[in-house]
Amino acid sequence: MAQTKIEPVVFNNSSGDKSTDAQLHITVFDSKDTTMRALKRLGLFWLLALASLPIIGAHWVLVPGFFIAGPIAAVLAYKVKEVFDKSSGVCPECRESIEVKMEAKEVLPKWTYCPKCNQPLQISR
After folding, report:
1. Rounded CA gap, 93 and 110, in Å?
2. How much is the pTM?
């Protein structure tokens, strides 16, 4: 079962002279979750290959494409062991409480902008 863990991170401003402590929320997948996610991706792509069979002309490209993309997507999904969800803390510039959404494949350090004051913000460990 996927679990959420919280790790400490730091919010820095663009000049690096101000920083605040923050939390990084991470979803961690166990081996059963990664296997299920990979099988779902494989099934989805193979279902798309099956659904594209009746499309005249395009099925010569779509069926082999989805059939080959299925195992590739499954392996990529199986390799993902943890996903960054969000980071929350206090902006070093405006001192407002903020929450920054993270993309699944992002790595730290990450540059973004404060959602309140729109100042550059670096998230680092």
Report:
1. 17
2. 0.75
- Nearest Cα neighbor of 83 from 59, 105, 113, 112 is 105
Are 35 and 81 in contact by the 8 Å Cβ rule? The answer is no
- DSSP-derived secondary structure letter, 14: T
How does pLDDT run across 87-124, given as a tens digit for each residue?
Answer: 999 999 889 999 999 987 888 899 999 998 989 999 99
At 68-91, the pLDDT tens digits run 999 999 999 999 999 999 999 999
- Read off the DSSP letter of residue 80: -
Quickly list H helices, 1-125: 31-51, 59-79
In DSSP terms, 19 is beta-bridged to 12
65-80 as b/e: b if 16+ CB within 10 A: ebeebbeebbeebbee
**Contact in structure between 109 and 123 (CB atoms under 8 Å):** yes
Q: Which residues touch 87 (CB under 8 Å, ≥6 apart)? A: 9, 11, 22, 23, 24, 25, 99, 100, 102, 123
